[in-house]
Design a protein that fits this description.
The complex is a heterodimer of chains A (252) and B (169).
Chain A: H1 6-16, H2 22-34, H3 36-56, H4 58-61, H5 66-74, H6 82-95, H7 109-125, E1 135-136, H8 140-151, E2 166-175, E3 178-186, E4 192-199, E5 209-213, E6 216-223, E7 226-232, H9 236-251
Antiparallel strand pairs in A: 1-2, 2-3, 3-4, 4-7, 5-6, 6-7
Chain B: H1 2-22, H2 25-41, H3 52-73, H4 80-83, H5 86-90, H6 95-109, H7 112-123, H8 128-135, H9 139-157
Helix pairs in contact in B: 1-2, 1-3, 2-3, 3-8, 6-9, 7-9, 8-9
The chains are: A alpha+beta (252), B mainly alpha (169).
Chain lengths: 252, 169
Amino acid sequence: MTEPNHNEDWPLHAYADGEIAGPEGRALDERLADDPEARAKVEAWRRQKAWLKEAFDPVLDEPVPAQIKAALRHRRGFTLSPWAVAAALALLIIGAGAGWFANLQVSAPQAKQFADLAIEAHEIYTHENRHAVEVAASDGEHLTTWLSKRIGQKLVVPDLSARGYTFMGGRLLAAGAQPAAQLMYEDQGKRRITIFVAANASNKETAFLVTQKDNVTACYWLDGPLGFVIAGETGREDIVSLAHLVYQSFEM
Amino acid sequence: MNFRADLTAELPYLRRFARALTGDPALADDLVQDCVERALVKSHLYDPTRPLRAWLYAVLRNIHISGLRRERRAGIVKTVDDLSDPEVMLKPTQEGETLLLQVASALDRLPDQQREVMILVALEDMSYRDVAEITGVPVGTVMSRLSRARGALRELIGEGAKPSLRRVK
């Protein structure tokens, strides 16, 4: 077939694709009635359409693979309204530990194990002065690339500056047999908090859970591929609201 | 939560689009998975006055194209030899199946820009305006790519031979 004059065929394409209706469409109906060549073109294109549908429409009836459904579940998006956050926070403060979160797992041994490890690491490293972190915040990009690679998931450094915390840097930890990351922050009064992140093999989700050991309060949760703990020598309310900031950073 | 429900309803269409775009079931589902993840993260960018499907197709297409770019940078480029699909020549089991394989193979041989327009218009029944928006080019460009794609397909497949295979009136 030689290259046709595309411009001349455009109304025919538009007609074949249902883009033309009304009087213009009726005019084309008439033209086609007297023009076998144009009619053949339109028919050929519609046939191509039918073939494509025949070839690919069966995909529509296939069950959606589990990996795709999982992707739909484990990211919660931006749909939490401020009210929902406030309500969740209130519930958490009143009811954490009381098993109020019916649809979320409250007993999560993996999460608790992370929390214990994170608190331990918090106590060890926040008391270091010169060697508090392995890689300093000044080398932030290297740090996130390196830790993301070791954890096997993309990590971000949550910005907690709105709450007066400056990012100091981070280090790699051993969480049992698997690598974990510790990110450390400090406020002007030299109070330090740490965020612990490790891959969550169970891929489960939990609510925000709170635990306390010595002076350290920790809020921990599992969110699909990652498990988180935020720990500091501060109150429960404070740590939970920081946890929200961390949670949101990882939603971005 | 509506967004998530609407997105769920679009999954079969996203899979069909991705399958036609890549011609590879596993690759297509990876693409859909990436698309779902990105759509959830970027849901605030979706304008609810516009059709969700078109927006999702644009997201999926962009991921696909950046993947192609990455492949090209990494030196994985389809060579001319890859373009003639041996399957079409080796396993013509049934007449009908041969034609469908031929369609898939011919689609795969179109230049990327023509293929996506052809898929969006002919398979997905998108309006020219939506296709222009998804692919980021003027409607005139959509039409000329479509016209070229149809010409090329006609040359590659012909008229589809046997009358029994013509399922259109």
